[in-house]
Amino acid sequence: MNNVRDFGAKGDGIANDTAAIQRAIDAGGTVYIPSGVYVTGSLFLRSNGGLELAPDATLVASRDPADYNQKDFCQQDTNNVCCGCSGQHLIIALEQQNIFIRGGRFDGNARNILQDHTIVHSFMGGPVWSCKGWRPAQLMAFFECSNVRLSDFTIEDTTGWACFLYGCENVTVQGIVIQNSPYVMEDDGIDIDCCRKVVVTNCNISTGDDAFTLRACTSKLKNQKPCEWVTVSNCLFHSDYAHAIRVGVGGGEIRHCQFSNISAYDSHMAIHINSKYSDKSEGVEIHDIAFRNFHVDVEQLAFLRLDYKFVKETLCPKSIHDIVIENVDGRVRHPSMLHGNGVGSIHDIHFTNIRLNVEGKLEIPENTRKFCMIEGIDGAFELNHVHNVTFTNLNLKYEHPEAWKNDISQQNSTGVTWK
In what order do the strands lie in the sheet with 140-143? Predict the structure, then answer.
């Protein structure tokens, strides 16, 4: 075990410990980071090793851009400029095997890095910071790695996504706490993109943007693969201005995934499934995904839509199908939306044992209406251009029943049944 103090790290919260920690990593095997506060820039993990942090050890992101990786340093990270981010990261693993991070705390230092900002209202409803100048992207970025183990640490205050797994295989994420600012744009929690065989358990994630996502952006991978066989269980998700769970984005395929024993609170949507985000993408084929045993306190339970608001030209030709949403209880304030487009297909969607208190009088703020793409509505579930949708044991209790005309409203749809 390599103690970073033996390689020159100070851990005093002042000295720059990037080079010392990297020397310990390059020596191979397990790197131990004892109690202290370590200011660092980019650290590159190596195969057959990892970081073991003491419970009260903290890695703090440096405020100096010179301490980070070169932009576009690898094919998988080319043009990583989401929402003004730089494509630079605190922790990087590029095509490595048998790596781990365990224990301690990772501080993205957004409060100090993002100093030049003003409060604005975004298309999501805001308020958020309008951030200017340099800022790092994903705090942890794993590119086409295998046998990754992440456990029992805290990530907080990131300037971009907290943890990004891209094209990885055989991943375990357990006991992670993520606490991000509600004012930072694009500060997702965990983003799983084109990964296979992933298990995520016992995580507590609170973010401004999406708490947890499944994505299928295949274009930058050396070895393209679907996002599949992902299991997420026993987690607590909160997104201040977006979604607890988001599925979609890209041009590949997401399949064979399941979520169970999830609590989603104070978010726009508990379950957001969208095939085509903008005209820049082809859309994602999304199927065979189950959401079971959810407790929710959110604006919307479910949003399934082929085309998002940024699609202006070519409608999505892909499909969303064989989706199960089962054993859900809690509170919602706005209708769930299932909208196809007459070109692609949304079909074989199954709601079973849904028990919800429906609050409010359909008085929806304009920002929320735009963000959630809520159009003319009169029901708790709004269906348009969808097929073979079943509702079994749907139990809705309305706070203001006079404001809601229907449990289920449908247009241009076939095979919609409920009992």
Answer: 43-44, 91-94, 140-143, 163-166, 190-193, 212-216, 243-250, 269-278, 300-310, 336-339, 379-384, 406-411
